[in-house]
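Why do we bother with a discrete structure alphabet at all? Because it lets us treat a fold like text: something you can write down, compare, and reason about line by line. To make this less abstract, here is a complete entry for Endoribonuclease YbeY. Read it the way you would read a sentence in a foreign language you are learning: slowly, and without expecting to understand everything at once.
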Amino acid sequence: MQFIFDVVISLTKLSDSSEVGLVVTDDAFMKKLNKQYRNKDVPTNVLSFVYHETNPKDFVPEGDENYIGDIYISHQQVEVQAKMAKMTDKEELARLFIHGLLHLAGIHHGNKTEATEMEELEDQALRYILSTG
């Protein structure tokens, strides 16, 4: 995962001293998070939580200055989406981790232009990772 993180750093404004948390969980927990934070009562594949949006700078604990957020990924969605995309589970997990990191870097897909930019960055990162991995 460190290699994927390094690739995304090279494509974004994230600092190479940035730190993230990654939780791979199940659909039931993702459904809870999706309901709680997005008011959607269904499981989802990936959720990103930007640390500074929920914890203002003056409340960042000592030693956490580089912590930018958490990414949650459903292993069940990884399996389903990998089959649909004819990818391995490992490739799909990498794609979702890239997606989550891009959100933490401030890149979103709220409109068509943003979605296109995000997809291009995802594809660029994944192609590089798969070609070297």
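What the structure line is telling us, in plain words: The mean pLDDT is 91. The chain has six helices and three strands.
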